Amino acid sequence: MASLGLAFHEGLWWPLLRDAQDAKEAASECPGRLPAASAALLAKRISEGAVVVVDGFLSSAELAATQRDLALLAAMPGVLELNPKALAGDSSVRTDKVCYLRAQGDIRLEKLERLQLCHRLLRSLAWQLSGGSECEEGPLLVPQWTQLALYGGSGTFYSAHVDGFTFPSWYCLTGLYGLYLFLRWGAVRRRAVTAILYLNTEDWSEEYGGALCCKAPVAHFAMAGGSTCDSLIAAAPGFEGEGGAPRPRSEVWPKGGRLVLFDSQVVEHEVCPTWRERWALTLWISR
Length: 287
Ligand SMILES: O=C(O)CCC(=O)C(=O)O
Ligand SMILES: [Fe+2]
Prior knowledge:
28% helix; binds fe (ii) ion; binds 2-oxoglutaric acid; alpha+beta; 10 helices; 9-stranded mixed beta sheet; globular
């Protein structure tokens, strides 16, 4: 019983989602930036299993100001730590450094207004993606925290994985152990949409490596008139994979200001070895 309790408490659910907000509440701090008319299309593409890419989600000026914030943050001693897996002694899965940013009471963010804006913009996406109403599959839940990851430029990587975890139907036959796992993976099980905002140079070169490689087709858009636009334009013709065989592998370069969205339970992805510093701010929208 004690280990069940521990699984529940330590097992991601309590620490990670206890103070999550519903989508509407999370968006109340910051108006969503996606053009309202396009948000439904993006949600549809995500539900079809595509990796949605939106270029120009941040303007060049916002990106430059955010990069200044990142330099300040990186200079704060002990703020970026090795990721939890590597800290626990396993560096075979991922080698990035991370810092978890929280919406409230995070003094590190107090003076970093642009980074705060990025955090809020990500947190406002759930309400936009659900079309400003509750989703059929249940309301979306927005954690208070985002993950800021720094991949150093020495071949840092994150091997292939899926962000969520769906329990196979037979797992209930495993009895108490199944219940333990169910609780242990509580928050991961509840991840719905992964939202990543890249904070690197806009002209990221392929030589730098660091692609987000996905086993999924890409649906590519750009903000039509900069980050205050009222519509999205399809940056690549249509939905790659639509009508034909889905592309088995897509490479998404971590260009600054680019937003990437995908179904956390479905899309297998990896960060290929990076030869330049690579920053990514991630939110796992849950349910
Ligand atoms: O930074 C990226 O492009 C993806 C990172 C990732 O897959 C993760 O943190 O789960
Ligand atoms: Fe991931």
